[in-house]
Each structure stands twice: as C-alpha cells, then as structure tokens.
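Help wanted!
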Amino acid sequence: MYRVPRGTSDILPKEQAYWRYIEQEVANICQLYGYERLDAPAFEDTQLFSRSVGEGTDIVEKQMYTFQDRGGNQITLRPEGTAPICRAYLEHGLHSLPQPVKLYYITSIFRYERPQSGRYRQHYQFGYEAIGDDDPALDAEVIDTAWQFFLALGLHLLSLQLNSIGCKKCRPGYLTVLKDYYANYTRDLCSDCKTRLKRNPLRLLDCKKPLCQQIANSAPRSIDYLCQQCDTHFNKLKRYLELLELPFIVNHCLVRGLDYYTRTVFEIQPEAEGAQSTLGGGGRYDDLIEELGGKPTPAIGFASGIERIILNLKRQNIPVPALPRPRVFIANVGDEAKDETVKLASTLRKNGIGVIEAIGSKSLKAQLRQANTLGVHHTVIIGDEEIKAGTVILRDMTTAQQKTILINQLQGLLK
Ligand code: HAM
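Answered by r_m:
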C-alpha cells in the first residue's frame, strides 16, 4: 500500500470547507487593503533562495528540496514565498508602477522538517508583500492586515510580538555586543547554538531550549543599539500601532528564521502555545531586492501557514460555513424510470439545481438510505406508474412526507 509521503497530507473533502473559508477571507482582506494576487512557479533557481533566505539558515542548510533537473539546472522547490515575489517584481518591471506594489499569494511551501503537529514538509501559506516604500505607516498597515485577517476568521486570544533588528548600518555593532555577551556562556549553550554563535549569532536569541532561552532573556537587546533612523522608524511604528489599538508586545528575542529581515520583525501567536505554533510572521526586508540585482527598494511582508490557521480554528471551536452541495436526490425503480432519471437530472442541473442521481441498481430502500446519508433535502422518486401519469413523488427527507406532483411542476417547486 502506498501512503502519502511523510510530512505531507491529503486534504479530504470533509476538510475542504476550512480551506474555502480561509481562501474567501484572504480574498476579502486583500481586496480591503489593496493587494493583488501573483502566482509564481513551484520551483526556482536554487540560488534565488540560498542568496535571499541566507546560507546560514536552517531552511537553506537543512530543509530545501534541491535537485538537478534533466537539463543540469540546480532547482529548488519553493521553501518560502517572498523571494519568488521579489524575483517576479524585478523580472516584470513592477518598479515602474506606483509604489508600494502590493502582492499576495496562497501557495504550497516545501521544507524538509521533522514532522509534528502543525509542522509539515509540504504546507500552504497565505502571504503578502508591500514593495517600494519604507514608511513605518506601511509596517503598521501590514501588521494590521494580518491582525484583522485573523479577527475576521473569528480567531481570538492572539498575541502580537514585535521587535526591530536594525539595518546593515547598525546591526554589525549590535552583533559584536551580542557575541561578547555569549562568549561568557559558550559552555552552557546547546550544540546548535554553539554553531549559531559562529555562523548566525542573531538566531541565538531564538533557541527554544530552556537553558539557552534563559541566557537569551538577559542578552543585550537589539532596540538599544539601533541607529538614529532605525530608532525613529521603530518609534513611529509603535505610535501607529497604538493609534490602531493593536496590542503589541516588544519581544527582544524575536529575530525570525530568515536572513533577509531588516528593522521591523513581527509574529502573531496563539496566546496559549506561543512561539511553538506561530500563526504567522513577517517583517521588513529593505535590502533584498537590491541583493537580487534591483535598485535599493525597501519592502515588508507577512505569511501565515494555512494548516496552522485551521488547527487554531478547530481548537477555538470556530464553525466554518458548510460548502454548497446538491440538495436533491433522484431515486428510480425500473428501466424506463432510469431513462427518465438521466434526462431529469440533466435538465435540473442545466437550470442550476444540483442533483445526485441514483447510480447502479440498488433497491428503492437502499437508494433512500443513500439519499439520507448524503443529507439531501428532497428525494424525487420515479417509478413506472409515475412515468405513465407524467408525475413524480417528491419526498421531504426531514419529515419523510411524500406527495405526488406533475413532473413539469418539479423544477419550480425545487427552486
Ligand atoms: P516563516 O515564518 O518561515 O516566514 O513562515 C510563515 C508561516 O508559515 C509560519 O508562521 C507558520 O505559520 C507557517 N509555517 C512555516 N513552516 C511551516 C511548516 N513546516 N509546516 C506548517 N506551517 C509552517 C516566511 O516564510 C516568510 N516568507 C514570511 C514573510 C513574508 N516575510 C516577509 N514576507
């Protein structure tokens, strides 16, 4: 027996209502904030991701699905959605549009992770990017978009974590202070953090191991080492968030797992589980477009895992609208009645009435049982006598009451 590959899942029909509900809310929120959809391919040149996400990150070092195609090209299945959007922005000359250009996506993401609840090797993300301006009001708007999206879905008890990790001017100074601080604790750090100290010191703050977390809690804070511009930017952002009445918490250990971030970083987490099951995260990446070969172009964005959203909708018992499905079943007895069923089902569907017709040669009792299981509202029953009389029997499935009606009245009644 074949099974789905580890860390992936089938999205069964009974789960689909959640997906359609979220897609609908994504479309609504994007329309409200002026984002347009951009769909990029599932794979790109490996270099696009290694350069943007960063060589020293877990994603690039351990998690990318990379292979050589038959033409000898190094290809990687998309491990995140921001770099492809920036590539498309440059490739299609979107810098010539009024800025910021606002783009969104719902897309599959591939990361070779250790699978666990809410962590998969293929997951889906809703993400959006606002490219072309460094106004902190845009940061506030991007954060507000995420917050309002989760509220619109009905989620509550969320916490908004915020930090500023500076820019290429002030970050090196901060990293020196951070490394000096950690030099006193090298023996206490976990093995991953020992490597981080050398390769990616900012990520030391992000370690989930209790002892490392204790050390991180007392570490120097990036916001105390911001240059004048970054400091002003962060203060303005906080003021805008207050104006928007968004209840943020400044978290000095929030640094995110991708290297392209500058200044603002933020995450939205369920209050109960915290960072282990972050609903979504994002931040500024003011240097990325330039690193990919464009002109200096500041930008900011956010992404959220759809499976994580569904997990939280279920945990919080939030009902989602049921998907529309056929409400009429046609049962039949006899060959002539079967012919009539085939014709009637087609006519009703052409007139916009969803119908499930009895297929096979089950007894009437079995057909009615099937109709019941399908949850239809009405069953139309056709037998030889009805055909002779030009009638059908219409059965209300909730009350089990039946009445005989003329076949040409059926459509009107069902509508
Ligand atoms: P990220 O934090 O790596 O950011 O992923 C965004 C969200 O995707 C996470 O908060 C989480 O909800 C979900 N997610 C990540 N990995 C998994 C997984 N293995 N299984 C299930 N869900 C997962 C980014 O990818 C950035 N591109 C976000 C961004 C957009 N920054 C700026 N613009």
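OP: Thanks! One thing I noticed: The pocket of histidyl-adenosine monophosphate is lined by residues 80-82, 111, 113, 118-120, 123, 125, 127, 129, 257-258, 278-283, 301-305, 307-308 (CB under 6 Å).
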